Amino acid sequence: MVMIRTKKIVLHIAMYLVLGFITVVSIGPLIWVAMSSFKTNSEILSSPFALPSSIGFGAYIEVLQRDNFLLFTGNSLLYATVATTVSLIAYAMGSYVFAKYRFPLKGLLFSLLAVTLLVPAHSRTQPIFSLINQLNLFDTRTGVILVYISGGLAISLFIIRSAFASIPKELSEAAVIDGAGFFRNFFQVHLPLAKGGLATAGILMWLGNWNEFFFASLLTASARTRTLPYALAFFNEVFAFNYTRMFAALTIVILPGIIVYALAQEHVQMSVASTGVKG
Fold it and tell me: Which pTM was predicted?
């Protein structure tokens, strides 16, 4: 009995040590960046891990007042919000059909869509770049949004399809008996009941679009269409010897994503976990 208790204690200690290490490695750099944004250059170089001697927002004000910073922020918000909204509407309809209807090659088609999870983004560079060029959408907001719309296809199908599959089919049958067609059944019966999966997919897509760098750098050439994460590379060059402002710019870029995920963390984790046991 004592041996069993001892083993449990040791396992718990080991588990908390591992979790603590993962937490420090994951959150530590973010805290250090935010903390450094309140230091002077000399404090960062002489005492990088010490607390700042004073708290001031001068670096943040200067970064926000820089030319085009608000434009870059607006572009990122526009791309992330529009792409996520359009994606949710399209993927919700597709997921609803996969969850509730039977049709030829259903399994094969879903597998082909799901396998895109295994395709690295960089391997799609040439076809996407060529397609955007042929459509004359290079260095346009429309081109970036179209690429972002396709970004969350596979994971959204998994999450939203699972949410629809968990809704009892008797509700669909009752709605059909009452005279509901496809769109009424979808919008008035199923969509409200699947709002948890929709919210989770929307949050994950929005975060992915907000933080996306590669395709933003590939498909934009002017400041007019540049995103905030991509613009950060130019800020790093401008603030190469002003670490305080560089860290302030970094904090501004990463803060919205952290806030959004922190507010919806429990909901996202529960919904993603449920995809393994439903549908």
Answer: 0.81
79 band by pLDDT with thresholds 50, 70 and 90: very high
Structure tokens at 227: 């995103």
Amino acid at 51: L
Q: Which residues contact 71 (CB under 8 A, 6 or more apart)?
A: 223, 224, 226
What's the CA angle centered on 99, arms 97 and 157, to 5 degrees? Answer: 85
Give the pLDDT confidence score for residue 135 in this predicted structure: 92
Asked whether the beta carbons of 83 and 145 are under 8 A apart, the reply is: yes
To the nearest 10°, report the CA torsion of 49, 51, 52, 57. 100
Please choose, from the candidates 154, 159, 85, the residue with its C-alpha nearest in 3D space to the C-alpha of residue 124: 154
Token pair in block for residue 61: 């004000």
Q: Which single residue is written with the structure tokens 């970004």?
A: 151
Token pair of 113 as six digits: 């869509």
Look at the chain and count its residues: 279
CB atoms < 10 A from the CB of 182, how many?
13
How wide is the angle at C-alpha 87 spanned by C-alphas 185 and 189, nearest 5°? 15
Please choose, from the candidates 96, 116, 92, the residue with its C-alpha nearest in 3D space to the C-alpha of residue 106.
96
Look up tokens 């009995």; give the residue.
1
The DSSP secondary structure of 208-239, one letter per residue, reads HHHH--HHHHHH--SGGG--HHHHHHHHHHHT
- pLDDT per residue as tens digits for the range 210-237: 999 999 999 999 989 999 989 887 776 6
Cα(190)–Cα(230) distance, rounded to whole angstroms? 38
CA triplet 89, 95, 96: central angle to 5 degrees?
90
Torsion region of 136: left, alpha or beta (phi above 0 gives left; psi -120 to 50 gives alpha): left
Amino acid symbol at 216: A
